[in-house]
Amino acid sequence: MVMLRTAGWLAIIVAGMGLAPAGAAVPEFKAAIVQTYPHDPQAFTEGLLYQDGFLYESTGREGQSSVRKVQLDTGAVLMQHDIDKKYFGEGIVIWKKRLLELTWKDQIGFIYDVDTFKPLADFHYEGEGWALTRDDSHLYMSDGTSDIRVLDPDTLAEKSRIHVTCDGHPIKNINEVEWVKGQIYADIWLTNLMAMIDPTSGDIVGLVDMSDLRMLAATTQAVDVVNGIAYDATGDRLFVTGKLWPTLYQVTLSKRTDGKDLCSALP
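^ that's the sequence the OP posted. Answer follows.
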């Protein structure tokens, strides 16, 4: 059985940015905008990643799901593959020359040639598919629960699971994920929060309040939840967006001085 889902920035080293040791309050951060880029306001963003100067994005909803290659500066869609209308597309990840895409409840994923989006194969997994990301040796898949599945990137076999907790409490609704300097950044569905997860312990070691960004994105149209994290490792740039957001934001993170106990707001 197999499972998948993908996508972050600015992993913050515990000593360097004051992330909490075990038993301490979880540090809280805010996002400051560095630059803005156009984003398709009709894109129901499920997966986002940055590679070789381009964004790759997957969108959801039955009848509207697609995988896309997007020009960062303009938001122009350079290449797009629409999946069968019966599927609700979810997260993506690139491994070698393959782009892998999850679907939400159908327990099937699709594999494409990353250069052409030509379909190559499909794969199956149990449970729901939400998001995917990767490091140099594994894929990481969220499925809406408090667990992140660790997959062999070539066989897609499940190797282990990371049980995610905040102050010792299991946290569900882990959505879009991104590998950022040794941590997994994750949007938490139905909140405006992005979590920084230690992949060894599963502890949430930082929380980013993105409420201000969502309010800003909503000034010109109705928007949905925060969802979409991409990290440019070479340029050390973190990009975030959301479902139906007209803007993609490049951000930096800074420590909050007015802690709100964000951990207690997680599902």
